[in-house]
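PROTEIN DESIGN WORKSHEET
SECTION A - STRUCTURE
LENGTH: 297
TOKENS:
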């Protein structure tokens, strides 16, 4: 059964997610600030419109995939926001990675308007978005998740209900903090092996079958030439940007301060990614942290 969906945010993640919904037979109208992204979506069979308000008003489901908390707050709240345009009962799904408090703020406002809402950030990278194998970490009511599940299952292979509103964001922040730490540790380990005369692929293969095994080694290796179809083997283009990782590590710091949790490695990772960004690598994939030691101080 076809569902009328509005998808806002056709970036590196949002575009393939929306395209998978189109391929599954849903009527998906896509919106993005970049005309090239909208055109690419249209070329793949997606619907486009010059009237976002009218599209939202006619939608059964509105999905957003935006860069940061301020973008989500701006998209949903205010006189021209999604909550002012959508019909009561419209299912709202935000797949952005934002602060827990921002997610709860929008969730409360949606509830007041009679619109079920989920915060459903994802893990799995651009490959997962393309292949429909993302992991969704969902916060919100069980009934809203049940309604969203058919669409989420098109875009992902694992769907976890973390708890109430904002809980999906909390889990995602924890996950991305660990991912940032793992990428730095993996990069250092490979570079140490190479500095001692080892082949980067050999040391990666050995560690991937040993106690140092982790996702960055097996799926997203940061050393150029070790793995195919990863950002490291195409000049660190595409994928998940350094500045986005830096943003997420900042969210982890905010959460730690608010809850009194201690995250010394998370704080160090944020410092290193900040150095990398300020050295001019903010637009590269976060695995380019492998090259941090090549950057002049």
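SECTION B - SEQUENCE
RESIDUE ASSIGNMENT:
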């Amino acid at each position: 059964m076809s569902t009328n969906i509005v998808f806002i945010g056709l970036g590196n993640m949002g575009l393939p997610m929306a395209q998978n919904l189109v391929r599954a037979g849903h009527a998906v109208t896509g919106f993005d600030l970049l005309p090239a992204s909208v055109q690419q979506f249209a070329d793949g069979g997606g619907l486009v419109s010059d009237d976002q308000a009218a599209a939202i008003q006619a939608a059964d489901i509105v999905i957003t995939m935006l860069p940061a908390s301020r973008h989500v707050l701006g998209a949903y709240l205010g006189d021209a926001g999604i909550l002012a345009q959508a019909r009561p009962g419209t299912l709202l799904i935000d797949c952005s990675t934002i602060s827990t408090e921002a997610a709860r703020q929008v969730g409360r406002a949606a509830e007041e308007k009679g619109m079920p809402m989920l915060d459903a950030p994802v893990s799995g990278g651009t490959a997962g978005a393309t292949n429909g194998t993302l992991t969704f970490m969902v916060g919100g009511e069980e009934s809203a998740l049940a309604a969203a599940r058919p669409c989420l299952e098109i875009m992902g292979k694992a769907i976890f209900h973390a708890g109430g509103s904002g809980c999906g964001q909390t889990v995602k922040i924890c996950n991305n903090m660990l991912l940032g730490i793992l990428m730095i540790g993996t990069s250092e380990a490979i570079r140490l092996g190479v500095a001692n005369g080892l082949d980067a692929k050999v040391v990666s293969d050995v560690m991937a079958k040993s106690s140092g095994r982790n996702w960055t080694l097996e799926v997203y290796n940061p050393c150029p030439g070790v793995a195919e179809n990863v950002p490291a083997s195409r000049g660190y283009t595409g994928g998940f940007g350094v500045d986005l990782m830096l943003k997420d590590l900042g969210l982890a710091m905010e959460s730690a301060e608010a809850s009194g949790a201690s995250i010394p490695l998370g704080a160090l990772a944020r410092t290193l990614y900040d150095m990398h960004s300020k050295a001019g690598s903010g637009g590269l994939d976060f695995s380019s942290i492998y090259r941090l030691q090549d950057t002049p101080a």
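SECTION C - NOTES
The two ends are 57 Å apart (CA to CA).
The chain has a mean pLDDT of 95.
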